[in-house]
Amino acid sequence: MNAFKRDKKEEEDGGGNPFQNMEKTTVLQEARTFNDTPVNPRKCAHILTKILYLINQGEQLGTTEATEAFFAMTKLFQSRDVVLRRLVYLGIKELSSVAEDVIIVTSSLTKDMTGKEDLYRAAAIRALCTITDGGMLAAIERYMKQAIVDKSPAVSSAALVSSLHLTSVSGDVARRWANEAQEALNSDNVMVQYHALGVLYQARKSDKHAVTKLVSKLTRTSLKSPYAACMLIRMACKLLDEDEGAGELYEFVESCLRHKSEMVVYEAAHALVNLGRSGSRELASPISVLQLFCGSPKPALRFAAVRTLNKMAMSHPAAVTACNLDLENLITDSNRSIATLAITTLLKTGAESSVDRLMKQIATFVSEISDEFKVVVVQAIRALCQKFPRKHAVLMNFLSAMLRDEGGLEYKAAIADTIIAVMEGNTEAKEAGLAHLCEFIEDCEHTSLAVRILHLLGQEGPTSKQPSRYIRFIYNRVILESASVRAAAVTALAHFAASCPPLLPNVLVLLSRCQLDSDDEVRDRAAYYCAILQQQNDPTLLPLIQPPLLSIPSLEGALRNYIRSSMDQPFDISQVPPAQTVEEPTQTEILSNIKQQPRLTREESFMEKLSQIPQLATVTRDCPLFKSSAVCELTESETEYNVKCVKHSFANHLILQFDCLNTLTDQLLEDVRVTVEPPEGYTLIGEIPCPRLAYNEPGTTYIVLEYPKDIQASVATIPTTLRFTARDCDPATGIPDAEQGYDDEYMLEDLEVTLADQMRGSAGRGLDFSAAWDAAAARGFSELEETFALGASVTTLEAAVRSLIGFLGLGAAELSDRVPSGTVGHTLLLGGVFRGGKQVLARARLALADEQVTMQLSVRSPDPDVAELITSSVG
Amino acid sequence: MFPIGDTAIRKGRKEGRPVTRVHVTLINFDINMDGQLLEPTLYTVKGMAILDNDGNRILAKYYDKKIFPTSKEQKAFEKNLFNKTHRANAEIIMLDGLTCVYRSNVDLFFYVMGSSHENELILMSVLNCLYDSVSQILRKNVEKRAVLDSLDIVMLAVDEICDGGIILDADASSVVQRVALRTDDIPLGEQTVAQTCTQLQWSHRARMPGDLP
């Protein structure tokens, strides 16, 4: 009582929040008032409100506290006060997840829900369903069915909505109550209609045929509720997306563009745009509707319209041009989100001439919009750079201005990515881009971004026109930044020194200063690079400045093995597979929400799997997996048994992994093996059968072969057969009928062991091909050279490059796999490692004449057999 | 979160030495401008909130356990939302992967949140219903003080508008009718004649016979 009075007093003091400074324990103590008889509704309602307020503020109640409060609350069922009773329902819902024994109120709630008071009934149903579990469901089922078809819309809606919530308790609730929902669908009340449609969809959504029937029936009647109409549009679109009932449904969605509710019109336009049925005729009507919305006084409607147009501008810029005039009016909209979307849409659809003007406009308010939208702007600029390469100067300046503004890491990273992408796509922009990035790292608070840009400078800077100008920027980082940035700067400096001999003496001075750094990683690196760079005459050491991107777990494994060995031979780094480079995503992927996880390389994940099989340990223990081939299918995809093969190459062994799938429901396969006839020179080491292959459960069997001593013989064709013991079984249960099975075999297609299976491409950007090529000659590599005329199927240089890389399994160096268009001659530089760690370098000079490609291929490798194998297998 | 090269990250190395390629990946921002067909469902509303003019929560409900599972995350979101919206009266904003529509009056801010693919106009209709219901409950006196004084009724109204993410009713007068407005909150002398009349109407509609103590 006292507390209550004090509250009153504070309220009278004015201003403040009467619910402020409440103690959870005090309030819960006040809840004892609930036990008084007779109940004082006004007072109890106030206390209950306080409890609800506390919970809503995020106050956590312990189980005991919650249970006590809950039981005190149940006493309030004595009162007939409407507000108090309704608050009790709210309390039940809030506490039901924390308190124990909440089902105690079931009977009270059931009484209320079947009673006469409509104001109680609807709310009681909803409260009851929150405390209902699977076991209680049967007890209230009858009441719920009645409630769904009740003539009071509130009660009917409550029951329908609750039944949807109950699907999480019992999956088939909606289906069991579908008949009642069907009846409710005819209700005059718009909300009941909407909720009934939701329940019916939930009941039938797994049965496409039933949904089609429901939708096509409803499209003929007109639904009164705009919400239900929106729902119906979504259902229709889902079917259209799955290619069901095409024409009629499409017409229905289109007809919704003339609905009297804006909500439905927009939903229909949005759906038509997203259906992906391109064609200017189909898109004309939704676009004209959206165009109309662009002029609406309601911000939400303008936003919705321009957002949809923006999306469409990516796929159909031409179709959106019709709205350009309306979008122009929106670029000064007071809602910055709308303005941004309008401008970015215009940037996508507009002509080159309007770029300058739009960029100027957006620059006026770019600081006001949220980071999310800034990213949209950055993406638009990126697309623009690809479209109008000549505009790169304007766009680059704009990006650098954005870089200088405030912003989070993701936003800054998006800008840096865009600048890098522009630089890669357009050599003219490289110098300017590097200059902007240099300026940016002068004042960059994100370590990871600074490190990345320093790394990029190290890669790209040495090949620019004036490498020396970047040294200052990089060395400034060494003086001013944190340890990880300093370390990256040291590495970048070393790259400059390695690639630009004139800079070497100066950089060595800088690096020797870095050896006095306070951080050990920085010192280590400086010392390491100094040591290498001072022996400048030895070209074989230079690759150590830019070590190949190795897969760290494999390197670790290989080093462990090496330590276990006698260590009398030098460690061979070429055994270690390279890390998987994440390919640049294509334009569409940039805009999607895919998160790229750092992942194991294919080889590593296979290695992990293989090393867990004890029978394979003899092979996998000593030697890392060199290369895993792509999956090749040994059967047609729709045959009885599916067999796919992955070839794992080790230094001297070949493990064939056969992934088998049994697609027959009435058969159980046992002792499944793939038998191979080892070709000449190969030795069969062992096989691991798959003990059991049930229907639709993948199984794996392995074959281990030893490569022939003669490398020339390693490229071979291996005939394969699937052998197994089949037992007939009951398709439903999978339990075999017969005691005894019968042996059977199934012919598979031949398996080819190719050159690419034994070769790993390792070149990438880091390899200085000409240096390596010359060094190879110096180190006594054997060289083979031959001239070929490529087959009739290869008619362009690009095709020749592609097929050559695919065939040899080598990697292209110095971006030589990009053939400039319109040329008739091209030199492809390739590098890689043959199994066993034998380096391979290849240079292919290609010439195009009369759709016929001629190739002169030179191969250098320490092992003459490998070089021979390469030239002979091309021929 | 920032791919300078997968192996470098996995090993906890902070700099990108062994990377030969600078990746242009991961624009995992919360807004997904990439439209998609909406799954037919009644679960439309992700949350509703009423904040005061300092951005403090007066009432907030979140219906999707997947977004903002704890009250700490909810309040952080509300703070962010308030900072982005309290100056510009722009009605709609996208934030943290949600489309938020909002409306303010004197010292109160009303928000309705939905997924970023949701039909903005549906969310707007819910917001309007929320605002109009509160306005009717408070007799057009939409102020923080008034909301706190009738917090119980406002709570009931919110509960009547949206149940677990499903729009229960989007018609303000029907919502007000269902929340059983207490009529004797304002002393008779302070009411205008019109107010008294409307109240009598309401009480007539709201109270069932036999309910009076």
Automatic annotation (TrEMBL), chain A:
What are the UniProt keywords, alphabetically?
A: Cytoplasm, Cytoplasmic vesicle, Endoplasmic reticulum, ER-Golgi transport, Golgi apparatus, Membrane, Protein transport, Repeat, Transport
- Its predominant location is cytoplasm
The way it spans or sits in the membrane comes to: Peripheral membrane protein
GO CC entries: COPI vesicle coat; endoplasmic reticulum; endoplasmic reticulum-Golgi intermediate compartment; Golgi membrane
Domain named Clathrin/coatomer adaptor adaptin-like N-terminal is located at 23-536
Annotated signal sequence is none
Compositionally biased region (Basic and acidic residues): 1-11
Any idea where the Coatomer subunit gamma C-terminal domain is?
757-874
Where found in the cell?
A: Cytoplasm; Golgi apparatus membrane; Cytoplasmic vesicle, COPI-coated vesicle membrane; Endoplasmic reticulum
Q: Boundaries of each Coatomer gamma subunit appendage Ig-like subdomain domain copy? A: 605-754
Q: Offer an example of a GO molecular function term for this protein.
A: structural molecule activity
Enumerate the residue ranges of region (Disordered).
1-22
Function, in words = The coatomer is a cytosolic protein complex that binds to dilysine motifs and reversibly associates with Golgi non-clathrin-coated vesicles, which further mediate biosynthetic protein transport from the ER, via the Golgi up to the trans Golgi network. Coatomer complex is required for budding from Golgi membranes, and is essential for the retrograde Golgi-to-ER transport of dilysine-tagged proteins.
**Family per record:** Belongs to the COPG family.
What name appears for this protein in its UniProt entry? Coatomer subunit gamma
List the taxonomic lineage: Eukaryota, Metazoa, Ecdysozoa, Arthropoda, Hexapoda
From TrEMBL, chain B:
Superkingdom of origin: Eukaryota
One cellular component (GO) term of this entry: COPI vesicle coat
Q: What subcellular compartments does it reside in?
A: Cytoplasm; Golgi apparatus membrane; Cytoplasmic vesicle, COPI-coated vesicle membrane
Entry's CDD domains? Zeta-COP
Record-annotated AP complex mu/sigma subunit domain positions: 45-182
One biological process term from GO is: intracellular protein transport
**Cross-referenced InterPro entries, in alphabetical order?**
AP_mu_sigma_su (IPR022775), Coatomer_zeta (IPR039652), Longin-like_dom_sf (IPR011012)
Main localization (coarse): cytoplasm
Question: What membrane topology does this protein have?
Answer: Peripheral membrane protein
What are the protein's UniProt keywords?
A: Cytoplasm, Cytoplasmic vesicle, ER-Golgi transport, Golgi apparatus, Membrane, Protein transport, Transport
**Its job:** The coatomer is a cytosolic protein complex that binds to dilysine motifs and reversibly associates with Golgi non-clathrin-coated vesicles, which further mediate biosynthetic protein transport from the ER, via the Golgi up to the trans Golgi network. Coatomer complex is required for budding from Golgi membranes, and is essential for the retrograde Golgi-to-ER transport of dilysine-tagged proteins. The zeta subunit may be involved in regulating the coat assembly and, hence, the rate of biosynthetic protein transport due to its association-dissociation properties with the coatomer complex.
The record's family statement is: Belongs to the adaptor complexes small subunit family.
Subunit structure of this chain's protein: Oligomeric complex that consists of at least the alpha, beta, beta', gamma, delta, epsilon and zeta subunits.
Name-wise, this protein is Coatomer subunit zeta
Q: Gene name on record?
A: LOC107266528
